[in-house]
Specification:
The structure holds 2 protein chains of 2 kinds. Chain A is built from 10 helices and 6 strands, in the order βαβαβαβαβαβααααα. By secondary structure, chain A is α/β, with parallel strands linked by helices. Chain B has 11 helices and 11 strands. Classes of the chains: A alpha/beta, B alpha+beta. The interface between A and B is large, with 57 and 60 residues.
Chain lengths: ~220, ~475
């Protein structure tokens, strides 16, 4: 057993559990409690709550469900990795299709485990991503090897789309930063990414693009 | 629809009945009236003629009064000659009005139009009915003057026609003085009148017929219009209703799917972890896991997979979580795995632009199209393109298969026709073209149908998050 690090708080991994189902939280907590180097520092049950908890608790790893009310785990992952870059996020979901996996990776998740894998594997996954590695459930890994994720260079993330929408509606980067409670530099970085992905140069083109796609009204 | 139709029949029947009754009643009434009129007119005309004859006779008598009344001046014979001469010269009404005189024995004394009769005895003269004409005229005359109808030669026509004659008796000389008119022109006049009336009756008949026919026509026209508008309304209602049914069905599947995924599955997962925790506990205490625990875990894993499969089948959660293009990508890769037919998916850079109902409709179209391709098309490749350009969101599903009979496939009742209706319901356009070169389904939805949806759904909840933080 992994009892040798019992007294070493430094090597204990702090984990935030995000799952909208309390029974799953309970079951998983019960299992992870057997591993002494895992410290569950908090639980919450939706993506929006996860952001504030992540900021407050600064966990090493967040175990993130995908289907949740308010904000799903993938959108939450993107915002948390944007605002707390030190937090590693492990997606913990029932969804096993490639689109979920690639969206999660694009959003900044470090690993993806399925809910029907054993708690032992969850434990190893937490350990792996806490060290800065990645980890995927074996079936997911197999899928990724068979169909490598295409670089989604042209597709905007939800966050980028939100910022495009604000900018197109005439908000300055400063205003966007204030509204989303993020730094001016982060907004600017997003803007650069958006322009690069959509292959456009100017603000006018951004506005036109947003209008043409029904993102905002004219 | 049956009620107006029945009303229509009743109305038409009524019109037919009314026209029928009117037709016969009026015809009958008219004929009756006209016949009465003709009789009255005939009597009137004949009465007029009789009056005229009397007048002519009295005028004629006045003109011979002198010779007749004063025999002293001339001899009896001379007086008679004068009178006879006078009457011979009295002609009226063209050629047909003249006076004739016979003595009491039937000897003709004056007859200007048939002079060969004069001087001969006509006592026994009969007409075709065997009536002794001259005897009857003399008898009338002796009785103080009366009228008699018989057939006689009409000078202007040269043939026998009906004639009415008035005869009086000149007592002094035992002469019978008569004059008559021919009635053929009266009857001509009457038959003209009759013909006119018949024309009029026919005219009325025609009017009744035309009115009846046009009434029936208008009733039918009205009925058809009412029926058509009813049908149109009913069709619209049916379409509306079927859309509602589909909405409800979709909502129901989504709901059940969510219940399964978020409810049952999560409970099963928690049980799974409880069983694992039990296993871990046993291991920690250096006890071996019982076989029953292992088989429980295995069976539970099967149950979880099964519930997931059902949930996914009812409503793919990916549609709600990641949006349409990812959902399309997902079923496309499932399709490729299943059929070994490559599918290329082109998708826009933006995501989650569409509200649920459009998402679901378009997803179902792709699903249905892929099912059709698998069943009928024998395609070598499939292209699914989703794009947003110039006010339209366009979804194209194209295969290079053998095509299929649109009508036949649609009549099998699966979704495409319903889905087409659904697209139109959302103000979109649905077209399908199938040939031996393959099939192209094109769906267009105006951006106006979903503009700002992303902001309303995503950014709105974002703001709430920020409020929570503060």
């Amino acid at each position: 057993m992994e009892n040798n690090n019992l007294d070493n708080q430094e090597t204990q991994i702090s984990v935030l559990l995000v799952d909208d189902h309390p029974m799953v939280q309970g079951g998983l907590t019960a299992c992870l409690a057997f591993y002494d180097d895992i410290n569950i520092v908090g639980t919450c049950n939706d993506g929006a709550d996860a952001l504030s908890k992540a900021k407050a608790l600064k966990p090493d790893v967040i175990l993130m469900d995908v289907s949740m009310p308010n904000m799903n785990g993938i959108d939450a992952t993107e915002i948390i990795t944007e605002q707390c870059p030190d937090v590693q996020i492990l997606i913990f979901s029932m969804h096993d299709s490639q689109e979920f996996v690639s969206s999660a990776i694009q959003a900044g998740a470090s690993g993806y485990v399925l809910k029907d894998t054993s708690s032992e594997e969850v434990y190893y996954a937490i350990k792996a991503i806490a060290k800065g590695n990645t980890h995927f459930s074996s079936s997911i890994a197999k899928m990724l090897i068979e169909n490598p994720i295409k670089p989604e260079s042209e597709k905007l993330t939800t966050r980028e789309q939100v910022i495009l929408s604000y900018v197109a509606r005439g908000l300055s980067s400063k205003e966007v930063a204030r509204t989303l409670n993020i730094s001016f530099r982060t907004v600017d970085a997003h803007r650069r990414n958006i322009k690069a992905k959509l292959n456009i140069e100017s603000l006018a083109e951004m506005v036109r693009y947003a209008v043409n796609h029904g993102l905002i009204e004219e | 629809m049956t009620l107006p139709l029945r009303l229509l029949y009743v109305a038409v029947l009524q019109v037919i009945l009314t026209s029928f009754i009117t037709y016969f009643l009026i015809t009958d009434e008219y004929r009756d009236l006209s016949e009465k009129n003709v009789v009255i007119l005939e009597n009137f005309l004949i009465e007029q003629k009789k009056q005229a004859l009397k007048n002519y006779t009295s005028i004629a008598l006045t003109s011979v009064n002198q010779a007749y009344d004063s025999p002293k001046k001339n001899s009896h014979q001379t007086a008679q000659e004068v009178v006879a001469d006078t009457f011979n010269g009295l002609v009226y009404n063209g050629d047909d009005g003249y006076f004739f005189i016979y003595d009491e024995l039937g000897n003709s004394i004056v007859h200007p139009k048939e002079p060969y009769r004069v001087g001969k005895n006509w006592w026994q003269l009969e007409d075709s009915n065997g009536e002794k004409i001259i005897q009857l005229l003399i008898k009338n005359a002796k009785n103080g003057g009366d009228f008699y109808r018989y057939n006689w030669l009409k000078p202007s026509e040269g043939q026998k026609v009906q004639k009415i004659s008035y005869s009086i008796y000149m007592d002094k000389w035992d002469w019978m003085l008569g004059t008559g008119v021919y009635l053929d022109d009266v009857y001509q006049q009457l038959s003209n009148l009759q013909a006119q009336m018949d024309t009029h009756i026919n005219y009325t008949k025609h009017i009744i017929l035309i009115v009846a026919m046009s009434s029936i026509f208008f009733i039918f026209l009205f009925g058809i219009m009412v029926n058509l508008s009813h049908k149109k309304k009913a069709d619209a209602k049916i379409s509306e209703l079927s859309q509602r049914v589909i909405d409800v069905q979709e909502e129901e599947s989504r709901h059940i799917s969510r219940e399964l995924h978020d409810g049952i599955t999560q409970i099963l997962i928690s049980i799974k972890y409880s069983l694992e925790a039990t296993g871990l506990y046993l291991t920690k205490n250096q006890q071996e896991k019982p076989v029953t625990l292992k088989s429980a875990q295995e069976n539970l894993a099967v149950a979880i997979q099964e519930v997931r499969r059902i949930s996914h089948h009812m409503h793919p959660q990916i549609l709600d979580e990641l949006g349409l293009s990812e959902a399309i990508e997902s079923i496309a890769s499932d399709f490729s795995k299943r059929t070994k037919v490559p599918v290329q998916v082109n998708k826009p850079a933006l995501r989650k632009l569409l509200p649920d109902f459009i998402n679901t409709t378009l997803f179902r179209i792709v699903q249905e199209a892929l099912t059709n391709i698998q069943k009928h098309a024998k395609a070598k490749s499939v292209l699914i393109a989703l794009s947003v350009e110039s006010d339209w969101l366009t979804l194209i599903i194209q295969d290079d298969g053998v095509g299929f009979d649109i009508a036949r496939t649609q009549s099998k009742g699966i979704g495409l026709r319903n889905l087409a209706e659904r697209v139109e319901h959302h103000r979109g356009k649905f077209t399908i073209k199938s040939s031996k070169m393959g099939t192209i389904i094109t769906v267009k939805i105006p951006t106006a149908s979903f503009v700002n949806h992303f902001n309303e759904s995503t950014i709105h909840s974002d703001k709430n998050d920020n409020n929570n933080e503060r």
